[in-house]
Amino acid sequence: MKHLIIGGVAGGATAAARIRRISETDTIVLFEKGEYISYANCGLPYYIGGTIADREKLFVQTPEAFGRRFDIDVRVNSEVLAIHPERKAVEVKGPDGTVYEESYDRLLLSPGASPFVPPLPGVDLPGIFTLRNVADTDAVKAYLKSHDVRRAVVVGGGFIGLEMAENLHDAGAAVTVIEMSDQVMAPVDYSMAAIVHNHLVDKGVGLLLSTAVKGFARRDDAIEVSLGDDSIMADIVILSIGVRPTNKLAVQAGLAVGERGGVVVDEYLRTSQPDIYAVGDVIEFPHPVDGKPWMNYLAGPANRQARIVADNMVLGDKEKYEGAIGTSVAKVFDLTVAAAGMAAKRLKQQGIPYLTATIHPNSHAGYYPGATPMAIKVVFAPESGRLLGAQIVGYDGVDKRIDQFARVIKAGGDVRELVRTEHAYAPPYSSAKDPVALAGYVAGNILSGKMNPIYWREVRDLDRSKVTLIDVRTPEEFSTGALEGAINVPLDDMRQMLDRIPSDKPIVLYCGVGLRGYLASNILRQRGFADVRNLIGGLKTYRAATSEVVGKAADAPKPAPAVAEAVTETIKINACGLSCPGPIMKLKQAVDGAPAGARICVEATDPGFVRDAEAWCKSTGNTFVSSGSAKGTYSIVVGKGADGASPVSVPAGAASKGKTFIMFSDDLDKALATFVLANGAAATGQKVSIFFTFWGLNVIKKERKPATKKDIFRPYVLHDAAVALSQT
Q1: pTM for the complete prediction?
Q2: For 482-500, b where at least 16 C-beta lie within 10 A, e where not — what string?
Q3: Residues 29, 1: contact at Cβ < 8 Å?
Q4: 388, 437, 535, 607: which one has the fewest Cβ atoms less than 10 Å from its Cβ?
Q5: d(CA 236, CA 173)
Q6: Inter-CA distances, 667 with 181, 663, 674, 710, Å
Q7: Pairing verdict, β 27-31 and 73-75
Q8: How many other CB atoms sit within 10 Å of the CB of residue 568?
Q9: Would you say 535 and 359 are in contact if contact means Cβ atoms under 8 Å apart?
């Protein structure tokens, strides 16, 4: 039997080798339009950036070595011009320009996909590149060597685009990413992509979202990238807008092509024509989750398809392909971004009901050095609990977790499977409750009704006058910044303050990451509060998703983090592995025990720590000196106020950071609630004011104390209220 294979990279080369392993006597001819076969195109950006120094390491096999080992007729620089199914032959243009025909018994299409180049003015100017193959890579590499590239523009915020942004940044260029959508990394939802947005900005990358490129022009020695009303200058431009299936041969041969442009194949990877098969980027195949055809441009599924199709081409159509769910992972500077299955936004577009859960666990046990945070979002069906998708953004352990999620998604399992999976545990690698299991527990609580979730978009759009918004974090955390309209009822004090929480309006709870909000919701719901919801993912998700990304081009490479100048004393504190409020409490303790003028350097793995520390310094009169980050570790340097005390009074110009409480009633219980909240704010060093309304004045005017019921907690509450009043 004679097999012809069109395309010699991932799918084609793998299928050819597999056919030979099955049959030693069959004839195999492999056509490749380019010069190379079986190369690592996923590694191309890292060769450009210098991470992969040796170009030869990109090549798994040379055509000569591959052909000799597997007895395959490898024909590079050979372009297949046409397929003639009626006579089972292909038309080929050889390296010397000669056109000839080659017959086949079985034909495999594996031509891959081509970069999409929009028909924009000036798109073919020198210095504008796509990146898909070795020739593209060599061209970019040569351009970087021969030109002084100080400014780079990457058009498109997908996987390859962001990998190129990182590598150009590492090569010393100031990089700007332009993305037409409102987010980078299309496979993940906006709330997860927002973490990547913040990380890119932290690394000094210019980020222009919801921005379309209108064209290019040459200006002196630079390229002007037109954005309509504005433009930016670049020394090199990388187009990474997307790819399209290379379907020309299939269309001309009359093969069935789907609405996305991919070649339609059945479960045996057979096309609409007998004896013609197809694999890789060129095919459309139903998604295992929703059953709708989709394009999956990933090397892993292409290799699996190649193995299956080789068996079917030689042995007959016996092995079925189950489809791919798009399990992917990418490195974006220090972050790792991964996804599997369907994102919530895609389900929403299709009108498919879903629920989500977001958690922020550590990569391994927090008490073991090197633990870093990750954000995990799972998407699941409301009734059955079937796991529909998962996304992770983090620094360490992301890849192994997404693989576990992918296994459950592909098997059609539900979120309970995440809990039943046995995870290997030792402190350097995980926690006794692995992040995958934690996601399952949270999703299970939502399914069972133990927790009523509210999501960041809902909280953003809330009419705050119609709900009671409660921050259950500590007063110290509350002082670093809270949601507008929120009152602070710390979780550990909640049972003693139940009578001060209004019961006539729905209650929305939130904390740092969602755990304390869940615990608080259990307390309130079991104590008779009916409408209680908890913010999924807590402030960490809310702040990332609602933070404004300043859209501007990168002017120059980001300088190295500032190094603190020599001072009388520098105190180093390690708060890595601690989640909020651990790092901020460590900072406070260090400042309290430090002499005036000392500098405190704190390292933490909580991404929100830098922002919280800066807010804490403003509220206490200490000096926020500098900050930096590397590989998931965030460092700050704080100078203690010169008066030697912390907290101190709010410095001039910071009065707007104080708190004002309103005493609106002469009811002692309501008055005590005001004093308790004022006490918590005053304890953080903030300026606190209490405004007494006409009726509220009666609290301090009455000569005779109002009658009230007392319990074992009341003497302590009265003492705290007196302290609060003395500090206003």
Answers
A1: 0.80
A2: bbeebbbbbbebbebbeeb
A3: no
A4: 437
A5: 10
A6: 54, 10, 11, 14
A7: parallel
A8: 9
A9: no
